[in-house]
Design brief:
Oligomer: single chain
Order of helices and strands: HEHEHHEHHHE
CATH superfamily: Vaccinia Virus protein VP39
Strand order of the largest sheet: 1-2-4-3
Structural class: alpha+beta
CATH topology: Rossmann fold
Distance between the termini: 36 Å
């Protein structure tokens, strides 16, 4: 789909621990919902290697807005179903410190932005069941949760449209 829409933009496949890019070749590098899959001991030096002086590393995470009652209730049901402690979305806590420790002095900016969207119940359930927590517990346990959760959601959203609310945590680090 990306190639059809923007055929002139090259796509490069790699991973954050070993970027297949030239040293000092980028002005901007971003990880959206994916920094937690990297090894910071490797990914931070890689990010700094490929960024030009003055280049920016942007990391962001969508976290469920737990102050919204139905989201808090759903999170509690997830915790009970999988036998876990409090489930929270990745928000970059500790990333600032890891970058500072590995990279020396960087200029940082941290922002938090709230956003919402309305999606069909099925889309919402497909999204949450794609999270690693569900994937590691297997199809059977995930299907059991999704079936029960569909009933809960339709009681709260009888029109079948879920209003999801997220808090985005953005960390921007500028390379000296």
């Amino acid at each position: 789909q990306f190639r059809r829409g923007l055929p002139e933009v090259p796509i490069v496949r790699g991973d954050g621990n070993h970027l297949p890019l030239a040293t000092a070749s980028l002005d901007f590098l971003t990880y959206a919902q994916s920094w937690h899959w990297t090894d910071p001991d490797r990914s931070i030096p890689e990010a700094l290697r490929v960024l030009r002086p003055g280049g920016a590393l942007a990391l962001w995470w969508n976290a469920a807005a737990l102050d919204v009652p139905w989201i808090d209730a759903q999170t509690s049901r997830i915790e009970r179903h999988f036998g876990l402690g409090r489930v929270v979305g990745g928000n970059g806590d500790g990333t600032h410190e890891a970058l500072a420790a590995s990279a020396g002095r960087l200029d940082f900016d941290r922002r938090h932005i709230r956003w919402t969207r309305r999606v069909p119940v099925g889309t919402h359930l497909a999204n949450i069941s794609s999270h690693s927590l569900f994937l590691v517990h297997g199809e059977e346990r995930t299907a059991a949760f999704v079936d029960a959760e569909r009933r809960h959601l339709l009681a709260v959203f009888p029109d079948g449209m879920v209003e999801e609310t997220y808090d985005v945590g953005l960390l921007l680090a500028i390379r000296p």
